[in-house]
Design brief:
The structure is a single chain. With 855 residues, the protein is mostly beta strands. Among the domains are: 2-154, Ubiquitin-like (UB roll), CATH 3.10.20.410; 682-770, Immunoglobulin-like, CATH 2.60.40.2610; 772-853, Sandwich (Immunoglobulin-like). It is 4% helix and 53% strand. It has five helices and 53 strands. The strands form ten sheets. The protein has a 24-stranded antiparallel beta barrel. Strands 3-2-1-5-4 form a five-stranded mixed beta sheet, with no helix packed on it. The protein is globular and about 105 Å long. GO terms for molecular function: fimbrial usher porin activity.
């Protein structure tokens, strides 16, 4: 019945009001006021578009994929009817040819687009058949639908290189300082990473200082770990490095070098594997110091709590190759083991070529090794039917090696690769050898069963096979001692041992995890290296089980390690338990309660020597941003009696700060950690939390103390600047400021920005801020309020608004003195100026009430 009445109603309206079509809206000003002069001209709202054309900051999506958040011009939508073009109401984006290129459109497929000049709106639905745009003004979201065939690259995540941001010129410094003052000795360690960015060039230096003093000894040394110059080569989809760096790990084992490297960058490709850094796992019996070395250099040093630990934040540029881990317990005992690292099967998509070229001197921090010049070249090619072929060569004066391999995607059965390397070597005693090494790698994720073979591999080498790293040794056998990096013991401590007469035979690696649903998860990680000429081997394994129940979490773990040439064998079993206070108190969890964010802990362990340790404690987070972590423990050890500790770590705006106190029967010590970053740029100097390789500089002048969303502890400094570390390269990074953390005198026009940084860049995300007074100003023109709906603009600050009831105008970011331009129609007769003046006390008030006269 209703449907039949609609055409009749439309006919009646058209007959009674012949000047108005059925599709139009009419705003009668008499609904607002009986006096027409008291209401501004509202005719702009009569065509169905309730928003005026202009520039709006919107989220832009292409084919359901986020592209950017940017200011975009919108015009009134039109439609073509026989003999005329009419406005249909609504807004449509003004996309010119430059924007179409940014969206990835294949311009050659649409030759008619050449007639449009830069800045000229392209009628998308006419120029590109099948294209559509939808604008949701309430959400400020623009959806653009383009036919997949019209795009240059249809892979999800593809971002045209024209959008990549090389960043701004800047000086950067990253520091990490750890110290320990104990009953028997003091030691300090400073890691300093500094750099300079200019255009696409990145200059980096990585160095470390260590100091140790004790009973009758003192060491003080500075080590230059690496210095290099790097830049992105966009046409080659690669990176170039000049100086100190490491070779890749795809075909050969990673080596340190001083020279030049040109290699493919996976991160420039959409949906490509980003690779992974090895996770260093272990079990600590006490509050222990962990030191990780690579090629003789200390690349990581920190302190860990009792129980199983996992370190997964190693710098990817220095995490390839074997890692030597030393865990020093509070009683002086040490655990030593090696964490080998090989890549997963080397699969590439069909048609993809991955290259890596290196030339330079072999570089190692091990004084037992020489520095021969070598060259290395590898190539990986993606073939049809899921195959990948790869190979490479290493050439040096006393060494020649060639490798050839094949990988296959087995579908439901995972991925596999096999390769063989043939090498000719001349060792330190001038003996010549040749042999082969066969490597097998397998990876599989059984999602339905919760099983993940992250890495499963085996390598078999014949008796005459050696690597370039082994050929670089000056002697056939020898020990590397820790005192060359600053020994804190009276007697030298063995760091590593080599014997070239014991050439490598077989190496097995495993890293498997198994999810058990509601019953927790299991994992097994480890490796075993056997040698020709000896029954000894290097072995390290760790297995664990973790689960939880009603907020309670617990884990059991065990590890076993031993090394050739070092007599001690380490075997440790540990149990850890954590119980939230909310469970102990028997009520629901509340994130805002410091008590509910606290938890009780229990840890126990036993090693192969029969040493037992037990610890209980409490821990949790404090402060409004939950950026202060604390823990207090008390325990007992069979070797050192009762012990205790208290630790706190604060993740602050200008860095991180940690402090801890430990004691046992024989000693007590105080340790601290401090780390952060410093950025020098055109607008000054900004302090920050520890920097990543790629970072974002936030610029919001005058907006001090504003939090950055999803960044713990990060907020703008007193000038309105902040650094968001660890940006994702060649991908959209969303930076948003928390408007709820702004004070009463700060306003930001748009609190969201999006950037696409290149490798190592410091990109700037600028926000337009208005710093000033928030006020409600009642403006009269003679004895009457200015017309309702009039447009208002403050001349100095540019703040805009609209007149409400009784001439009231709300404005933010106002200076104490200024002039308001008020317009209610076209022409000079439909505008006036209203000077105003606010008292100094306005800066201390949330909203100020004032009056002004318009003339």
């Amino acid at each position: 019945m209703k449907k039949s009445l609609m055409p009749l109603a439309a006919t009646i309206v058209a007959a009674l009001c012949p000047g108005i079509s059925a599709g139009e809206s009419y705003f009668n000003p008499r609904f607002l006021s009986e006096d027409d002069a008291a209401v501004a001209d509202l005719s702009r709202f009569e065509k169905g578009s309730h928003q005026a054309p202009g520039e709006y900051r919107v989220d832009i999506w292409r084919n359901e994929e986020f592209i950017a958040t940017e200011d975009l011009r919108f015009v009134e939508a039109t439609a073509v009817r026989p003999g005329e073009t009419v406005k249909t109401g609504g807004l449509t984006p003004c996309l010119d040819v430059d924007w179409l290129k940014r969206l990835g459109l294949n311009m050659l497929a649409y030759p008619d687009l050449v007639k449009y000049k830069a800045g000229e709106c392209v009628p998308l639905d006419e120029a590109i058949p099948g294209a559509e745009t939808t604008f949701d003004f309430a959400k400020l979201r623009l959806d653009i639908s383009l036919p997949q065939a019209s795009l240059l690259n249809s892979a999800r995540g593809y971002i045209p290189p024209e959008q990549w941001d090389e960043g701004i010129p800047a000086m950067l410094a990253n520091y990490s300082f750890t110290g320990n003052r104990g009953s028997n000795d003091d030691n300090y360690y400073l890691s300093l990473q500094s750099g300079l960015n200019y255009g696409p060039w990145r200059l980096r230096n990585n160095g470390a200082w260590s100091y140790t003093s004790g009973d009758g000894y003192r060491t003080n040394s500075w080590k230059n770990i690496s210095t290099y110059l790097q830049r992105t080569i966009i046409p080659l989809k690669g990176e170039m490095v000049l100086g100190d760096s490491n070779t890749g790990t795809d075909v050969f084992d990673s080596l340190g070098f001083r020279g030049a490297r040109l290699y493919s960058s996976d991160s420039m490709y959409p949906d490509s594997l980003q690779g992974y850094a090895p996770t260093v796992r272990g079990i600590a019996r006490t509050n222990a110091k962990i030191t990780i070395r690579q090629n003789g250099f200390v690349i990581y040093q920190s302190y860990v709590s009792p129980g199983a630990f996992a370190i997964s934040d190693l710098n990817p540029t220095s995490s390839s190759g074997d890692l030597e881990v030393t865990l020093e317990e509070k009683d002086g005992s040490q655990q030593k083991y090696s964490v080998p690292y090989s890549t997963v099967p080397l699969l590439q998509r069909e048609g993809r070529l991955k290259y890596d070229l290196v030339a330079g001197d072999f570089r190692s921090g091990n004084s037992q090794q020489d520095t021969p010049f070598f060259t290395q070249a590898t190539l990986i090619a993606g073939l049809p039917n899921g195959y990948t072929a790869y190979g490479g060569t290493q050439l040096a004066e006393r060494y020649t090696a060639a490798a050839l391999g094949l990988g296959k995607n087995l579908g439901e059965w995972g991925a596999i690769s096999m390769d063989v390397t043939h090498a000719r070597s001349k060792l330190a005693d001038d003996s010549e050898h040749q042999g082969q090494s066969l490597r097998f790698l397998y990876a599989k994720s059984l999602s339905d069963y919760g099983t993940n073979f992250q890495l499963l591999g085996y390598r078999y080498s014949t008796r005459g096979f050696y690597t370039l790293d082994e050929v670089a040794y000056k002697n056939m056998e020898g020990y590397e001692y820790e005192d060359q990096d600053g020994n804190q013991h009276k007697e030298p401590v063995v760091q590593s041992y080599h014997n070239l007469r014991y050439s490598k035979r077989g190496r097995f690696q495993v890293n498997i995890s198994q999810a058990l649903g509601d019953y927790g998860s299991l994992y097994v990680s480890g490796s075993q290296q056997t040698y020709w000429g000896t029954d000894g081997n290097n072995t390290w394994y760790q297995a664990g089980y973790a689960s939880g129940w009603r907020g309670i979490s617990y884990s059991v773990s065990a590890s076993w390690s031993k090394s050739v040439g070092i007599d001690d064998t380490d075997r440790i079993v540990a149990f850890n338990l954590s119980v939230p206070f909310s469970t102990l108190l028997g009520h629901g969890y509340s994130r805002d309660s410091a008590i509910d964010r606290a938890y009780a802990t229990f840890a126990a362990s036993r090693n192969s020597a029969g040493d037992n340790t037990f610890q209980t404690g409490v821990g949790g987070t404090l402060l409004e941003g939950r950026n202060l972590n604390y823990s207090v423990t008390q325990g007992r050890s069979s070797t050192s009696g009762y012990s205790g500790s208290a630790n706190a770590n604060w993740q602050a705006t200008y860095g991180t700060l940690g402090v801890g106190y430990n004691y046992d029967r024989d000693q007590h010590d105080l340790n601290w950690q401090m780390s952060g970053g410093i950025v020098g740029h055109a607008d000054g100097v900004t302090f920050s939390q520890p920097l990543g390789d790629t970072n974002v500089l936030i610029k919001a002048p005058g907006a001090s103390g504003v939090n950055v969303e999803n960044q713990t502890g990060v907020k703008t400094d007193w000038r309105g600047y902040a650094v968001m570390p660890y940006a994702t390269v060649y991908r959209y990074n969303r930076i948003a400021l928390d408007t709820n953390s702004m004070d009463n005198h700060t306003d930001i026009e748009n609190n969201v920005s999006s950037v696409v940084p290149t490798q190592g860049a410091l990109v700037r995300a600028a926000f337009s801020t208005r710093i000033g007074v928030r006020a409600i100003i009642t403006v009269k023109r003679g004895a009457r309020p200015v017309p309702f709906g009039s447009v208002v603009r403050e001349e100095t600050s540019g703040a805009t608004s609209m007149v409400g009831d009784e001439g009231q105008i709300y404005l933010s970011g106002l200076p104490l003195k200024g002039k308001l331009l008020i317009q209610w129609g076209n022409g000079k007769g439909s505008q006036c100026f209203a000077p105003y003046s606010l008292p100094e006390e306005s800066l201390k008030q949330a909203v100020v009430m004032a009056t002004a006269t318009c003339s």
